[in-house]
Amino acid sequence: MNVEQLVDKAKQVCDNRGARFTAIREKVFRLLAAKQGGVGAYDLLEELKVSEPGAKPATIYRALDFLSELGFIHKIESTNAFMLCHHFDHIHPVQLLICDDCGHVDELHSSLISHELNNLASERGFQVSNQTIEAHGKCEKCKD
């Protein structure tokens, strides 16, 4: 799916949920859509300043919070970075394969892993409300 299709899909999700996809939110969405891996908030801020010179850290964090709340992006906790989710039209378990060399991130959706984690958590009286699993290593290009 290309960037324009993703933007159209995001606008539709916002319309369906009664949320405002403001110009700043769309610009941050587009910046993330152009990336293959995770990107930090301050790197996004520097890119946003090209078209929005007055943008401040609060500007980027508000946009990222909005995009995260609607499920448009994932936060990669281990690297404090963000990435676009191409499957934001439905809630799903997430497993991320993160290359420690080039930074490329692959997003997986294994219901088997999710189910097993939920079962193990339930055995301990724990209810999982959100699930993102991060695995670090080397991608196919970097492992040689």
UniProtKB/TrEMBL annotation:
Keyword field: Cytoplasm, DNA-binding, Iron, Metal-binding, Repressor, Transcription, Transcription regulation, Zinc
The keyword DNA-binding belongs to this UniProt entry's keyword annotation: yes
Compartments where located: Cytoplasm
GO terms classed as biological process: negative regulation of DNA-templated transcription; regulation of secondary metabolite biosynthetic process
Co-factor: note: Binds 1 zinc ion per subunit.
Cofactor(s) it depends on: Zn(2+)
Residues that bind Zn(2+): 99, 102, 139, 142
Gene Ontology MF, one: DNA-binding transcription factor activity
GO terms for cellular component: cytosol
Family: Belongs to the Fur family.
Subunit structure: Homodimer.
Protein name: Ferric uptake regulation protein
Organism: Pseudoalteromonas phenolica
Biological classification of the source: Bacteria, Pseudomonadati, Pseudomonadota, Gammaproteobacteria, Alteromonadales
